[in-house]
Structure formats: C-alpha cells, structure tokens
C-alpha cells in the first residue's frame, strides 16, 4: 500500500522513532503522545482495520499484544498498569487505516474513555 502512512514508515520513506522491530511487527513512538509512554505496535503486513482480520492473523495479533505488554514492562509500567487500544473506523476515531495497537503508560487513565 504505497499511500499508507504506516507502510511508508515501515519502508523507511517517512522517519519515525522506532523502538522495536522484528520480522512481523514494528513499534514506534506516537508523534502526538498522550502519555509518557505512547507507542504504536504495527504489523509489517498491511491490514486496514480489525474488520479485515482473518483466522490466519491470530498469531500476528497475539504477537502485537505481547509486544505491547513487553514495551510497557520495559518502561516499568507492568505492575502500575498501562492501556492498550485499537481504534476501528470513524466512531472510534481511527485515522490511520493500517492496524496499530496503542500502548500508553505512565499516568492514570480514566474509564470509560472519551
Ligand atoms: P488512530 O487515531 O487510532 O488511527 O491512531 C493514529 C495515531 O497515529 C495517532 O495517535 C497519531 O498521533 C499517530 N501518528 C500519525 N502520524 C504519525 C507519524 N508520522 N508517526 C507516528 N505516529 C503518527
Ligand atoms: Zn499500511
């Protein structure tokens, strides 16, 4: 997807503050952080939204979630708590249509979310 912002970041065409990468997933800091830790965990493969997932993606999504937890733990937020969010489509505020797991930590979050 040449016009996808996150595919372009993954190809190195747009700079990002990458904090983790392996063969399947990449994590980088959100450009507009909402907490002391605000990273995005994205799959290398383009998937537009959670609505497009298939059973073949189950392992990949599991890796994304485990990576988010590992990043929170690295920063010392595992016990304190951290938040993970997937936004899907308009009413949830999805703006980039390449799935990404927000991982936020370092402050207290409210529930329900805004
Ligand atoms: P969402 O609203 O769930 O689709 O989240 C998209 C996120 O991508 C937002 O939190 C943005 O701040 C973030 N974002 C947009 N452009 C960039 C970029 N170039 N590098 C890093 N994060 C970005
Ligand atoms: Zn993409």
Write up this protein.
This protein is α+β, with helices and mostly antiparallel strands and 114 residues long. 24% of the residues lie in helices and 22% in strands. It contains three helices and five strands, in the order αβββαβαβ. It has a five-stranded antiparallel sheet, covered by helices on one side. A hairpin with a 3-residue loop joins strand 1 (18-21) and strand 2. The longest helix has 17 residues, at 58-74. The chain is globular. The chain starts with a helix and ends in a 9-residue tail after the last strand. The mean pLDDT is 97. Residues 1, 4, 6-7, 46, 98 line the site of zinc ion.
Helical segment count: 3
> How is the main sheet built?
5 strands, antiparallel
Unreliable stretches (pLDDT < 50, length at least 5) are none
Order of helices and strands: HEEEHEHE
What fraction strand?
A: 15-25%
> What level of helicity do the residues show?
10-25%
The tally of beta strands, per DSSP, is 5
Bound molecules: adenosine monophosphate, zinc ion
What distance lies between the first and last C-alpha atoms, to the nearest angstrom?
Answer: 31 Å
Radius of gyration: 14 Å
Draw up the topology in text:
Elements (H helix, E strand, L loop, with lengths): L4 H6 L7 E4 L3 E5 L7 E7 L14 H17 L7 E4 L3 H4 L8 E5 L9
The structure holds adenosine monophosphate (AMP) and zinc ion.
């Amino acid at each position: 997807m040449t016009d996808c912002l996150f595919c372009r970041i993954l190809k190195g065409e747009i700079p990002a503050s990458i904090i983790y990468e392996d063969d399947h997933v990449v994590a980088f800091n959100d450009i507009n952080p909402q907490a002391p830790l605000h990273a995005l965990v994205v799959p290398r493969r383009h998937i537009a939204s959670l609505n497009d997932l298939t059973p073949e993606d189950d392992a990949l999504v599991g890796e994304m979630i485990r990576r988010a937890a590992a990043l929170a733990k690295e920063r010392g937020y595992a016990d304190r708590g951290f938040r993970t969010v997937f936004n899907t489509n308009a009413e949830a505020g999805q703006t980039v249509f390449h799935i990404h797991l927000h991982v936020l930590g370092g402050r207290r979050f409210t529930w329900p979310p805004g």
